[in-house]
Amino acid sequence: MGYIKDRFKAQADTQIQVIKGIIDEHGNKELDKVTIGQVYMGMRGIPGLVTETSLLDANEGIRFRGFSIPELREKLPKAEGGSEPLPEGLFYLMLVGEIPTHEDVEHISATWARRSHVPNHVFDTIEALPPHTHPMTQFCVAILSLQTESKFAKAYKEGISKKEHWSYTYEDAMTLIARLPRIAAYIYRRRYKNGDHIQPDGMLDWSANFAHMMGYDKDSFKELMRLYLTIHADHEGGNVSAHAVHLVGSALSDPYLAFTAGMTGLAGPLHGLANQEVIRWIEELQKEIGSECPTKEQIAEYIKKTLAEGKVVPGYGHAVLRQTDPRFVAQMEFAKKHCPEDPVVQTVWNVYEVAPAILDATGKIKNPWPNVDAHSGALLKHYGLVEEEFYTVLFGVSRALGVLASLCWDRALGFPIERPKSVTTEWVQQFIGSGVTVAG
Ligand code: CMX
Known about the structure:
Blueprint: H1 3-26, H2 36-40, E1 54-57, E2 61-64, E3 67-68, H3 69-75, H4 87-96, H5 102-114, H6 120-127, H7 135-145, H8 151-158, H9 165-192, H10 206-214, H11 219-231, H12 240-250, H13 255-266, H14 274-289, H15 296-308, H16 326-338, H17 343-361, H18 373-382, H19 391-412, H20 425-432
Antiparallel strand pairs: 1-2, 2-3
The chain binds carboxymethyldethia coenzyme *A (CMX).
Carboxymethyldethia coenzyme *A is lined by residues 239, 270-272, 274, 307, 312-319, 364-367, 371-373.
């Protein structure tokens, strides 16, 4: 067993005792009240699951094991000569609960490089899809086809003790994460670069190798990838992609099946696909105005038009956050350093200056501030990665780190199958005792 796996197991064993104590002593304590409004409106704010890897504060933003994004950018190990955190380090932090050393991070990079070989049938499966298939669909299909490699599924079939579930889940998680960049890069080159594929470079870290396989070898793009793959990794457990992985995983579906569920959820425009939608929205705005850099007044008019047409302004709003997303801020800081003059970046910043007041004035949008997706496309486009349909795949590669670390925790802590109670409106009406009946 690798030493990081040992460390994870030791942490999990301690946590099992902590949780046992909490349930024994406080298991009947009421955590919160659930309102009928919450039941109808997407279960907002109901504390209903435990996710150990990160916690979201509505005003402060995400903290990974207690560390904010600015703290992670400062404390996590970096590539030689680089200034952005290595996502390998964040994975270690989410898994083990401590800031890793350089050696720990190098160990993970090397492990993932060693496990990155993707079997040919996965490429054959991708090739069976029409080339114009949306990259997120290709990504989901490819991950499913990789399920043949699941050590968990094989061991379960052979009959293993519940106590061993975590170990096979861990192995699958490590292998799946190791292979995702190759799969994603393959889809990118197939769809947009005439299938002119680039072989991996096993000497590079996970993000740099991903950038390399997509065809982007500039150092600052590799830095962007390290930042990007770090900040998109996790956003506590209730968001669609994380929750889907947890839910499907709770049925003991193996990590490949569970992760695919998360990715099909990430592919929705109100979740991860918003990064594609943001760039489309900006391009349509530029086209309509006839300028690369529309003025703030023109942007304001376009936002009002979007709202009047009954559409959402992509990249703005959030189900939990009530402030500017620190992931937006981190990308803004990166852009200030590397490409402050870029017209799309400038437009993103100008939207940021005018959109919140307009969205707030509607009186119904609870969070008028930008989320992570409002900025990411502008940075990618700056480096020539202009194919916005691919953006959510990048988000997905990063999200694997958080949701698969969480799945390891779910299995190590022995969480049961998830099965909340649902009710009918008739039940609600009886509960209220109003006697209201449905018209007609
Ligand atoms: N533009 C227009 N209307 C918006 C809006 C936006 N950016 N954000 C919220 N609203 C609307 C909602 O559609 C809802 O309208 P109705 O009452 O007519 O149904 C109303 O405002 C209240 O919504 P809310 O409580 O403020 O927001 P929700 O928790 O329901 O939804 C989210 C959150 C993210 C889906 C929503 O803000 C949205 O659609 N934003 C645009 C898409 C986006 O950027 N998604 C990415 C989120 C981050 C991520 O997961 O990657």
